[in-house]
What we know:
Layout: H1 2-25, H2 32-35, E1 41-46, E2 59-67, E3 73-80, H3 81-86, E4 92-94, E5 98-102, E6 109-120, E7 130-133, E8 138-141, E9 155-158, E10 198-205, E11 210-213, E12 224-227, E13 231-238, E14 246-254, E15 269-272, E16 277-280, E17 286-296, E18 305-307, E19 313-316, E20 323-328, H4 338-349, E21 358-361, H5 370-378, E22 382-387, H6 393-405, E23 409-414, H7 426-432, E24 439-444, E25 455-458, E26 467-468, E27 478-481, E28 486-491, E29 503-508, E30 516-519, H8 537-548
Parallel strand pairs: 12-19, 20-21, 20-22, 22-23, 23-30
Antiparallel strand pairs: 1-2, 2-5, 3-4, 3-6, 6-10, 7-8, 8-9, 11-13, 13-16, 14-15, 14-17, 17-18, 17-19, 24-27, 25-26, 25-28, 28-29, 29-30
Amino acid sequence: xxxSKLYKLLLCGIxxxxxxxxxxxxxxxxxxxxxxxxxPDTHLFLYPGIAGLDTxxxxxxxxxxxxxxxxxxxxxxxxxxxxxxxxxxxxxxTTEEYDTFLVPIRQKxxxxxxxxxxxxxxxxxxxxxxxxxxxxxxxxxxxxxIPGQYDAGDIPYYFGGISGIQTAMGAPLEDLExxxxxxxxxxxxxxxxxxxxxxxxxxxxxxxxxxxxxxxSNPPDSIYAETFTTRTFFWTANDSDGxxxxxxxxxxxxxxxxxxxxxxxEWPNRLPGLQKNVTLRNLSEGFHVFYxxxxxxxxxxxxxxxxxxxxxxxxxKEPYGDLLLVDDYEPYQDIGTWxxxxxxxxxxxxxxxxxxxxNWKVESLVPYSVTDIFETMNFFDKVIWYGDSNPHFQTTASxxxxxxxxxxxxxINSVSPTRVVDGTDSLYLxxxxxxxxxxxxxxxxxIGRASKNSVLESQLPETYPDxxxxxxxxxxxxxxxxxxxxxxxxxxxxxxxxTIQPCLGIRYPKGGPDQFIYLNFPLHYAxxxxxxxxxxxxxxxxxxxxxxxx
Length: 550
């Protein structure tokens, strides 16, 4: 009897306990109201790189993703430990699942830590009156005076891909599409963020910098090259840790047979990391070698580079005399050094010059630096520049303009361009520029040829003599002098098949005194090098004498 009562009491207790549990779990039809939102979980993956057995590179490609057991992941907050040094609330919002980062290594070895945490759809995005602009996909709170248009009262939330507001005043603002709002960080993340962010630690070793000369800023470094006493070197540096880690450049100018100190930091010349060139002036005559190295913020040095290479030679020569003779003929067009022989032969014996001048062989080795071009010319009071059909006026124009503006004198003579279209050749553009303006245009191009013994009639006979050609001119362009210049030479008669008596020479400024003479034919075509006793040769010498007269 007693056992039966105990059994009944036990059965009642079990029944009451079961009903109590059911009451707790069944008071709502939505079980999540009792259990609550389950936070997402975050995962992190490192794209492999190589720096050493136990270190990695300063550039990191990271991938991450999240899992949410009762919803979906809408975005992520990420941070680096060096962000936290700048701000306690350093996490940044993104909807991407990968990115490339450059960690700011400032010593030979350092460690960095990355954190990322997923955010699920239980977070809130409460942005009132949110609109977007189609300009750079910018987002605004449309709280200004004119609804649906961007005005001064609208508050920017998202700047798109370009820093700063790109949307113009009055531009239309539109409603966001379904998922656009998630580009903005949530306004409330209570219970929606992974409480245990994924993280990785990165041991990083500094990468050494490198430096090289700017492409084609030097002559080929395996040949013999000459310059005058001003020389500019240009370079570009690289560092996989970021170009901002470049701190110093060291350079050393060595004399023949000299070797710079093995410790680059003992070199006497140091430049700041933002400088990308150096101009050396007052160089001594002789052979030299220029050495260059770069240093980064960790104190690591690049390999040393040099100009010229070991097989090349760079010779500096001091200016000689007050006349510069510029040879702008490509080597293949200067067969037998005809032009060189002509000018050197005349100037070596001309009274008042007597060989007291300097030669500058341009070819394709025009200095990269405008400073070098002008300063080379400016060593001299007078310049005679002769060239073929492709002289380097396009790259030297600003220096020539500046030289003329300084009050000095230059004579240029060249073969007529053979590929002129409506007078737009760079040679004629140079002569027509606002800085010079000695040419109004070209009356006609390639109108024929001038035969041997043709006469070029001087239009300024009181100063300059007629010239008689010792060789024929293959291509003739008829020039039109500007109102600021004089016609200097006309062909004595039109070429065969033409009715035009072409102008082949111009003097600037109009009325003199001479500052610039342009001859549209090679001057040495009027001088018979093989027959120096030819009477007409004297006219060429007289032309040069008059131009060079003070």
